[in-house]
Fold this sequence. Notes:
Blueprint: H1 11-21, E1 34-37, H2 44-52, H3 54-57, E2 60-66, E3 70-75, H4 80-97, E4 101-106, H5 116-120, E5 127-131
Parallel strand pairs: 3-4, 4-5
Antiparallel strand pairs: 1-2, 2-3
Helix pairs in contact: 2-4
Amino acid sequence: MNCMWDKAVTKEQMVSFVRDTLGCHCPDDAFDDVSSEEPDSAGRFLNLLKSLDPEAADSVMRVISIGGRLIVIVSSLTEGSFIRRLLEAGVSAREAFGYNRLRLALVTGGSLESSEREILDGFDERVHLHVL
């Protein structure tokens, strides 16, 4: 799965990832507007993440926007404190741009150094963590 994020992906691949892999139940019309930012792009969401926490944002492989409602951050982080930092920056960016939900998809190929419960402690119910 990790290699998927090293190259350009189609809208269909992003929709399949968000719906099938992450289990998103956004209404169909949300998927009319799907966009992606890669680390080399000058996308506004990724730029805000970098300004909020450059070190944690360095792990971001892609940011996917779904219908102005959902932001999905794809990252390779495994260390709990860095994951929390990326989530904190992601929530700040989510709020700044008026999105409803944030999903952080960790493409680790293994396990995390902290439990998902520990990492998500203190975040609202609109923040989801996926370990792939």
